[in-house]
Amino acid sequence: MKKSLFLSVAAIVGFTAGVAAAGTLDDTIARGHVKCGVSTGSPGFSGVDDSGKNVGFDVDYCRALAAAIFNDPMAVKFTPLSSSVRFTALASGEVDILARNTTWTYSRDTDLKQTFLGVTYYDGQGFMAKTSLGVSSTLELDGATICIQVGTTTELNLADYFKANGMTYEPLPTSDNAESKQQYLAGACDAYTTDASALHGTRINMENPDDHIVLPEIVSKEPLGPLVRHGDDQWADVGRWVLNALVIAEEKGITSANIDSFADSKDAEIHRLLGTGDDDMMAMMGMPKDGMYNAIKHVGNYGEIFERNLGATSGINIERGVNNSWTNGGILYSPPFR
Known about the structure:
Elements: H1 2-20, H2 24-31, E1 34-39, E2 47-48, E3 54-55, H3 57-70, E4 76-81, H4 86-92, E5 97-98, H5 106-110, E6 114-116, E7 121-123, E8 125-130, E9 144-149, H6 153-164, E10 169-174, H7 177-185, E11 191-195, H8 196-204, E12 212-214, E13 222-224, E14 227-229, H9 233-252, H10 268-274, H11 291-299, H12 302-309
Parallel strand pairs: 1-4, 1-5, 9-10, 9-11
Antiparallel strand pairs: 2-3, 6-14, 7-13, 8-11, 8-12
């Protein structure tokens, strides 16, 4: 078992070194689009609407990245990836970036040689059960069968939580959230567990949402964010600072609708961010001077993206909570753009 794991990690590291050396930003520009890895379906984060268009919180991050590079939020090819293949797909160059509700952990950052760009969403693992089961807490799930996606931190957290509380469970492995939902609704498991945000999104889209309850306990820290291959610092800088720009824009009150009204702002950071001043900050990354302006203009600031995909407008109705700007009581905070 240990040898297989070592070979798997070594193979990923080998892929990473070879692909990253090519220079992802240059390759992306030459290709004409960003290759973005997303989930196979996570309500509010990644999915396809009735017209066949990719939509979701993670999807919009990739659209902002494309807008910053090409002034075109549609210059993205989305590749749905299951939990078990996502890291290999990134390492091999199948995708340029993963924006796939992936938890930032020590081992993923170091052992897999993949670089997290920041946190797009602070989440935590939760549990959902049918109201007919008659439970109101995860501590009442002793002996339950639980649907769980394999190859995830969720799988490990489940084992840790039940062991710490002296409980047992029967795992029913699934490949993705869609299969977990299918097995759960079919009665194959008593409950299922994943990130709480995904549970709320799944529940609201069920035929009878009131027949299901998201239990109150949050059993882990799940800082979700995009990641790229180690060894390509320029590409990591681009992805990291597009994310930071969306956060700064909300902090400054800049939206997709009012962005042009800031042309006469006396705030020097706004001019550096939007490329409307004398300093060409984006040249440091080999990007267009108005790259961040284009990202915000086309896709919106962080708050707009959250509201559209996860907030009241989306129907999922997730409260901002810690995912609010630090100026509004949350913990979203970007380094200064200077």
